[in-house]
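Lab notebook, bench 4. The sequencing result for the construct came back, and we need a structural model before the next group meeting so we can plan mutations. Quick request posted to the team channel:

Model the 3D structure of this chain.
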Amino acid sequence: MRAEAEGSRRLVEFAKQSEIYDKRLWMPIAAAAGGAGNTTALVGTAEQVAEALLDYYDIGVTTLLIRGFDPMNDAVDYGRELIPRVRAAVAKRERAAVAV
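Done. Here's the predicted structure in token form:
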């Protein structure tokens, strides 16, 4: 399938380069879907995924859309495991920045 949208085309190109793009961004579903929809996934433990999200924060990303393949259970896990880790790390970074 040939991706029509520029973003989809770029996503397919990234997927061709490697199954994992940057630290944790898993690409095989994006490749199989031709870049359509929300088809990338951050993979790893809550700590590892939080670290990957913080890498995006560190380069200036302020809004992230996350969802899983099991939306209800994943949302519960995000609320218990992932979001508190990311918030705590962002707060720590912001305190360190103010102290400088």
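Strands lie at 20-21, 25-26, 41-42.
Will bring this to the meeting.
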